[in-house]
Amino acid sequence: MHSEPLGPTTLDLFADADQQPARTEQLGPQAFVLRGFALPWVPRLLAALEQTLKAAPFRNMLTPGGFTMSVGLSNCGALGWTTDRSGYRYTALDPVSGLPWPPMPQVFRELAQCAASEAGFADFAPDACLINRYLPGAKMSLHQDRNEGSYEPPIVSISLGLPAMFLFGGMQRSDKSQRVPLLHGDVVVWGGVDRLRYHGVLPLKEGLHPQLGAQRINFTLRTAG
Ligand code: MD3
Ligand code: FE
After folding, report:
1. Is 130 in the pocket of ligand 1 (CB under 6 A)?
2. Residue 157 confidence (pLDDT)
3. Measuring from atom 1 of ligand 1, which residue has the nearest CA?
4. Best label site of 18, 29, 186, 191, fewest CB within 10 Å?
């Protein structure tokens, strides 16, 4: 009996070549990459991002050592991560506008809570969302996230746009790092014994993402207060 070849409507579940079905990769005992987890949320994430950036545009902050960060930063939520010559810290006010950081959009909170729960962390309630913008060449050197009030809650990060090579290290800077590519729609969740691991991002390669153009956006959601 003759049957039609299966066409795009049945087989092509992910129309964009850079998209992929969701699946989980384990990086450590309590660290997971949820591949493609954010894809269904992208239109809402981008709309919320646009609103947030109107009130708090990306800026290149100074490190305590006096270097300008290559990554552009903004924040939303009750607390925002900042750096200047006097150090790294969370503040309630945007130092550029003098106003509170824009509110955390509901879609960020919901996605972060869903992803955390998928990775075994119940009731994640972030109060801070750092927004990182990588243009080609921008990088983040190996560091630990240790400006938060408690290391008990996990951290959730969402990647959009151009792919980046993420470095997932150990508890000491000198420990060997795993290289993990992070693609548009990937979500990383880590906590517990993996919470204080060193990590970083290699310089972003040139490219054009069909939706975001020549950039990578990363949202990092934390309980900071
Ligand atoms: C940490 N951002 O803003 S988040 C940062 O892609 C930051 O922009 C990076 O590090 C970025 O502080 C990485 C993703 C991430 C993933 C796994 C980790 C951070 C991690 C595992 C352990 C510790
Ligand atoms: Fe970090």
Report:
1. yes
2. 98
3. 199
4. 29
